[in-house]
Design a protein that fits this description.
Number of strands: 0
Structural class: mainly alpha
InterPro entries: YidC/ALB3/OXA1/COX18 (IPR001708)
Strand content: under 5%
Low-confidence stretches: 1-46, 52-56
Distance between the termini: 87 Å
Number of domains: 1
Radius of gyration: 36 Å
Membrane topology: Multi-pass membrane protein
Subcellular location: Membrane
Helix content: over 70%
GO molecular function: membrane insertase activity
Largest sheet: none
Protein name: Cytochrome c oxidase assembly protein COX18, mitochondrial
């Protein structure tokens, strides 16, 4: 075999001489029987009907699922041991120990309390910013646009601008004036999104905090074991154990129902046809509200109880924020879309849509 290896590594002259001489197979009798001259020095002809053979790699489904579970576990552990989750967990324990309530009422009270202290003021501020922005767009800005059109027409005649340049200067001036108005009124649209940046982390942190209680995290101390035992034995309303899943589907259904009601009430309150991005966003939120139902049915009922309580609070909060008296009390400006009788308007809009569906059939 060594001799065969040396023969193959001779200089180009020896190789060319060997190829021209066309040695027989017996010249390589000292090599391994698996070695063939034809496969090394000559090009094999492939039959046209013979398909190419490719080396395929098959991904193991078991290894992929295992890797996916590991990634999910790593992400959940990172969130579970984060500082906001630890704070939310301490708040739950503090409310439970201070009030002396069982864990069922503690979760409901904590959900209402956190939403009222953190998200309710931000919701009022969001409505205030959106109302000022709407008045700016519908009342002040149109007058400025009319002045800009007149100035652009005069400049076009004086400087012989083409239509493209005139439109460019008009759009540029309109953006500048719009930014000035926003700065004067102090109603930048980004301020209205402040609520979502607080509400979502609050919901996630509270959910993981309750999850930690059911898993005796972050450490399995005596207090953690006692909380776990209380959650397993305490009853609340129709629930025999807060650790078991809600077999009646009442909490998952209530959570999805309240979330869908919030979305539909906002659509009915605006009473406008959804198009483009608004329609897409609304349908996505509807889908999420429905998809959360099976998830809530497969988690401990104490977690589903928190989700249902938070959704119920959000439903009541929206009803309050649409009240004209409350809006006036909070100093929220009136707009063209403000309803003096919001609840009656939503009911009438719902009835009209139902009649349209019936007539369409």
């Amino acid at each position: 075999m060594l001799r065969c290896y040396r023969t193959l590594h001779l200089g180009s002259t020896v190789l060319s001489t060997s190829i021209k001489s066309k040695p027989s197979a017996c010249s390589f009798s000292h090599c391994s029987s698996s070695f063939q001259l034809t496969g090394v020095f000559t090009k094999q002809k492939r039959n046209a009907a013979e398909p190419y053979e490719y080396q395929k790699r098959y991904l193991s489904k078991e290894s992929f699922s295992t890797k996916l579970v590991e990634i999910q576990t790593s992400i959940f552990d990172t969130i579970s041991f984060s500082t906001p989750v630890q704070w939310a967990q301490q708040v739950l324990i503090f409310v439970h120990d201070t009030s002396g309530l069982d864990w069922g009422p503690t979760v409901v009270v904590s959900a209402f309390l956190l939403r009222f202290l953190l998200t309710f003021p931000l919701s009022i501020y969001q409505h205030y910013i959106l109302a000022k922005l709407e008045n700016l767009v519908t009342k002040k800005f149109p007058d400025i646009l009319e002045e800009l059109k007149k100035e652009t027409a005069i400049a076009t005649r004086m400087f012989n601008w083409e239509n493209d340049r005139a439109n460019f200067n008009y759009q540029r001036s309109a953006r500048i004036q719009y930014k000035k108005l926003i700065e004067e009124e102090n109603c930048h649209p980004a301020k209205a999104s402040l609520l979502i940046w607080i509400q979502m982390p609050l919901w996630i942190s509270s959910s993981f905090a309750i999850r930690n209680l059911t898993l005796m995290r972050p450490e399995q101390t005596m207090d953690a074991m006692q909380i776990y035992a209380d959650l397993s034995t305490e009853q609340f309303l129709f629930l025999d154990s807060l650790m078991a899943c809600d077999a009646s589907f009442i909490l998952p259904f209530a959570m999805s129902l309240f979330n869908l009601a919030i979305i539909e009430m906002q659509v009915l309150y605006r009473d406008e046809k959804l198009t483009g991005a608004k329609r897409y966003t609304t349908n996505v939120f509807r889908l999420i509200a429905v998809m959360m139902m099976p998830i809530a049915a497969n988690v401990p009922s104490v977690l589903a109880l928190y989700w249902a309580s938070s959704a119920m609070y959000g439903f009541g909060q929206n009803l309050v924020l649409w009240s004209p008296k409350f809006r006036k009390f909070c100093g929220i400006p009136m707009t063209r879309k403000t309803r003096l009788l919001p609840y009656r308007h939503m009911v009438e809009t719902l009835i009209n849509r139902y009649r349209k569906l019936e007539s369409g059939k």
